[in-house]
Amino acid sequence: xxxxHKGISRIETERSQGWFVRAxxxxxxxxxxxxxxxYKTQTAGFKEALAHRNKxxxxxxxxxxxxxxxxxxxxxxxxxxxMVGVCRTFxxxxxxxxxxxxxxxxxxxRGEPHVMSFYIDEHGEKKAFKLACEYRLKMLEETYGxxxxxxxxxxxxxxxxxxx
Length: 164
Prior knowledge:
This protein is an alpha+beta fold. The protein folds into 2 domains: 8-60, no CATH class; 86-163, no CATH class. 40% of the residues lie in helices and 28% in strands. The protein has 5 helices and 6 strands; from the N terminus they run βββααβββααα. It is flat and about 60 Å long.
């Protein structure tokens, strides 16, 4: 058994042990848990999980080469700031003091996570948020192209109008 398999994770808690299969397609998550108890052994559970993952990938047209999403997400119902990838948080200074900030996050094409923070005590609440949003969009444009980001922005505005 290889050490890692894309889309398959090992879960071991007091109550359950097994393999968790997860696949993503068109902003939807497909997942299923394969319990060691149900399949009698860890190896048997893994074989079932692997077969299920391969079946789901085939049905969804996933080639398995790309782990991360092919496009950035800009809108999400559970997001509290209104811009996915921008959150209000804090950083600790060397002296352990809290500095409130807005952090912009994004992934490079190879899935490398990046973050840039804009401090509220330097810029003020509104400007720090605006700077974080602008920076995230700039980095998404550099990574995915301006056309992709513009389409997502337009789609997000239409979605947020419908939900009101």
